[in-house]
Design a protein that fits this description.
Elements lengths: L2 H7 L2 E8 L5 E6 L3 E4 L2 E6 L3 H8 L2 E8 L6 E12 L2 H7 L14 E12 L8
Antiparallel strand pairs: 1-2, 1-5, 3-4, 4-7, 5-6, 6-7
Length: about 130
């Protein structure tokens, strides 16, 4: 699946689900990821629960619900691989100039390997 094409051409809403080292789960609305290559995506993450969780437990799921009738979308299973703190690099990737709070300067760019992709509904793997 061409993730860059998918996210550039599909309207919808994303939810990032994470868990801390004790297994306490969290879900948060996230913009579409930055597709770095065919196996790697990245999110700009501010110092909140989701970032804290992936620093403790590198596994996450990004669920993207497509706009429209029915239940269409994708679930991307992720493993954190790296984190950047360079504000210049982060600012180059920002899609909006609007700030999201006082903690914006402490945002990190977090990279994830996409380990597998499933449809929004069902158990089959996506190609």
């Amino acid at each position: 699946m061409d993730l860059k094409d998918y996210f550039e051409n599909t309207d919808g809403m994303g939810i990032l689900s994470t868990a801390d080292s004790a297994g306490n789960v969290d879900a948060a609305i996230y913009a579409t990821p930055h597709v770095m290559d065919e196996h790697t995506i990245a999110f700009i993450m501010r110092p909140r629960t989701s970032l804290s969780n992936v620093q403790q437990n590198p596994n996450a799921v990004y669920m993207y619900i497509e706009k429209g009738p029915g239940y269409q979308g994708r679930r991307l299973y992720l493993a954190k691989t790296a984190q950047e703190e360079d504000p210049e690099k982060i600012n180059l990737l920002r899609r909006s100039s609007h700030g999201h709070g006082a903690d914006e300067a402490d945002a990190k760019l977090v990279y994830f390997k996409v380990t597998h992709i499933r449809p929004l509904v069902g158990d089959r793997e996506q190609a």
